[in-house]
Backbone:
């Protein structure tokens, strides 16, 4: 990977961290976004899936290789699928309060998200996780085979 690509991965890690902080701000400020059914299992699903999303970029930054990061990315996607399914079933959120921790002048960016829209986005993300696993598995196998054939020559 080029240095600029590794830098992009660092930016991605920072953005993922900001997303985690966004939800943590809701939790610490008791905005009403998290409903009373948001317990330890839901917190593990939410924060765990966010933080697992950092694994792939961290591996890419550390190694400078995309293919090495694909198995951890597949693991993160698997965790995301389980977490999304759980959060869709439990749905411990009230999106009427989603914009409450955003500065007033930026609230229009997220104030349009309702509970129904959030459910649809979670479902799309769940299917995206399934597609991600399939694509990463295929790429991992093909690229590994190419590397192996180059070593033989």
Residues:
């Amino acid at each position: 990977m080029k240095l600029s690509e590794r830098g992009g991965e660092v930016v991605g890690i920072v953005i993922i961290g900001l997303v985690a902080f966004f939800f943590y701000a809701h939790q610490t400020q008791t905005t009403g976004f998290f409903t009373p059914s948001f317990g330890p299992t839901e917190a593990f699903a939410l924060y765990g899936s966010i933080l697992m999303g950092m694994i792939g970029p961290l591996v890419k930054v550390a190694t400078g290789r995309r293919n090495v990061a694909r198995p951890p990315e597949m693991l993160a996607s698997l965790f995301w699928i389980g977490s999304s399914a759980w959060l869709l079933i439990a749905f411990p959120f009230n999106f009427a309060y989603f914009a409450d921790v955003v500065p007033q002048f930026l609230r229009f960016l997220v104030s349009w998200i309702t509970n129904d829209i959030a459910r649809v986005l979670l479902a799309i993300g769940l299917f995206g996780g399934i597609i991600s696993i399939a694509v990463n598995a295929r790429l991992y196998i093909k690229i590994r085979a190419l590397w192996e054939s180059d070593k033989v020559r």
Observations:
- The chain has one domain: 3-152.
- Helices lie at 3-28, 40-52, 55-63, 66-90, 115-152.
- The mean pLDDT is 95.
- The radius of gyration is 18 Å.
